[in-house]
Amino acid sequence: MQVAEVAELIGASERTVRRMIVAGKLRYKTEEGRGRGGKVYLVAFNSLPPEAQRKYLEDLAGQAEGKAETPPPSPAPAEKITTVAELVAKYGQEKAEKILDEARQKWEKYMLQAIAIMDGPEKDKLGRLKALARARKVSPETLYRKVDDYRKLGLLGLVHKKYLTPGEGLDGKMRRTVSLDVRNFIRAEILRYPRPKASHVYKKLKRVAPEKGWTVPSKATFYRVIEEILHTEKVLGQRGEAAYDSECLPKVKRDYTHLRAMEEIVGDGHTFDLFVEWQGRAVRPQLSAWEDMRSRKIVGWCIAPQANSETIALALRHAIRTHGLPGTIYTDWGKDYLSNYIKDFCQRMEIAIRNCIPKTPRSKMIESLFKTVHDEFTIHQPGYCGNKPENRPPGFDEKKLLKQKKLLTMEEFVTRWAAFVEWYNNRMHGEIGDTPINVFASVEHIRPGAVPDQLLDVLMMKKERVKVNDGYITLLGREYWSHNVDLGLLVGEWVQVWYDFNRMGEVLIWYKGKCIGTAVNREALLHGQDRAKLAEELKAARAVKKALKQRIASYVDGIEDVVDEEVVKKARRVKRYYSGNEDAPAADAKVQRLTGQERLVREAADMLKQSEISQETKKRSRSQDLYLKWGNRVLAK
Fold it and tell me: What is the residue-averaged pLDDT of the chain?
């Protein structure tokens, strides 16, 4: 066939056919009397388009039988991705952009140069195209093919063909030796928690394959399929949702530069990964802390053997007393942070409460502070026990260290923690580009001004609703009598009692929204007992009562047949009630709170004691004077 005949057959221009000849796609042989120079061009059947192949077969069959019959349709070519939308649908936006960017960097510059040569008026185009192919280190044939693909599909035509295979995989590797069912079986078995051994999965595959009619791949292919599993699939399937949320879930970067100092503070609790000595026991201290979002400064903290709503309030009191009132507190959904005590206190102080997204601790910036605390402080202290079982020091035994007196006391630990807080607030913070203390001092405060300590003492009291007995009230197992109010007039009425859990000797009584006076427990006042000590006394009293009941119930053992039936039933009820619960509360199960404000507490206690000593001669108590001073309207909130 001549050039014109080939062009007509394949549906292309003569110019395109000549380019194919140069690229080696068309061969020729010489025959006398045929064409210019006797050249007859031979076209490979497989290189023809599907329509040309079908037309050629029709002509060939028509010549053999005298008529044209439609041959069986040739196999359709393998489908491939032809649009950027399909590429994004298969690989995702980020991966698709990387694939296109890779093609752009490798080919687009050469494609533009080749098109300029082909369409330009300059001579010696063939030589220049060959030089461009050598510069790109490809054959002229590849260069021509890439130019054609670029003209048809744009940048997508320059993408490597391994990425254009349609299907589910994001890896672009479709192995013929592994069917889709086998691949899915391998992935489903591997992506389990806990992760099974690969050899176990391979043995199971060999057992299941004959039943399903599958071809068992080689071990090398089997392990390649495992390697091609996405990292995100491995994290979610083998380690669970918590690990996926922490490592793979997209995170939103927040900007706090628009905030003012103390406009929003974030609070949370943290258990230190170490043991300290406290009242003869080895315990892990727990921290309640508040951090300013704008400056990243630690503004308030409290350390205790057991964190609760009271330690949270003490840490918040520390923050308010040293840095002023916040506008909003940002917390998680822990029951201590959602307690009525915290809500009531914030309402009195006109502090808004905002909670983070449930089950997403990373949404609180203070979590990164706790990681710094572990890396920069905790691991360098005596008694470090490790944050994971694999990080536990070899042979660690806190009881042995306690006997050897190698653990820090609680007071020593608090002193070291206070020094760390000072260091942290004065160190350069990478995200804000300055020290927290400098940023806090340089920006405007949301609610400037200090809060008087006496006002804080009153507004941080807890509330209980109790019923008035014959001239007294009972709170936490103690009786309180009033020297200022005749409670006999309110016998049988419900009143609201405000009390300071650090000083249980004196409480405030509210009735119908007004503070009507104070009530005192003389013994608790003189001994300076707090709520924890009262709770300990109540536990001890209950333990005695429990032991006495069990002792009386034991008298009927073995003589049930001769003892009155009601006595036997009562003894059985006692045994059943206390079954498996015979541990008496420890004598040293007290709660001590260390906030760095002990001196202030002692001074306030002395003031209250002086007020109590002289209250016999005063018409009004110190608390009543305080209420009158600051106004019933504010305090009744």
Answer: 76
Q: Do the Cβ atoms of 370 and 379 come closer than 8 Å?
A: no
CB 91 within 8 A of CB 168: no
- Best CA proximity match to 464, nearest among 516, 499, 425: 499
Task: Please give the full DSSP string across 291-353, using - where no structure is assigned.
Answer: EETTT--EEEEEEESS--HHHHHHHHHHHHHHH---SEEEE-S-TTTTSHHHHHHHHHTT-EE
DSSP string, 423-476: HHHHSPBTTTTB-HHHHHHHSPBSS-SPPPHHHHHHHT-EEEEEE--SSEEEET
Burial (Cβ within 10 Å: 0-12, 13-18, ≥19) of residue 42: exposed
pLDDT band at 538 (very low <50, low <70, confident <90, very high): low
- Kindly tell me the burial class for residue 269, based on how many C-beta atoms sit within 10 Å of its own C-beta (0-12, 13-18, 19 or more): buried
| pTM score, whole prediction | 0.50
- β-pair type (472-475, 478-481): antiparallel
Report pLDDT digits (tens) over 188-228: 998 888 888 989 999 999 999 999 888 888 888 888 888 88
Helix, strand, or coil (residue 480): strand
Task: Write phi, then psi, for 329 (nearest 5 degrees).
Answer: -110, 140
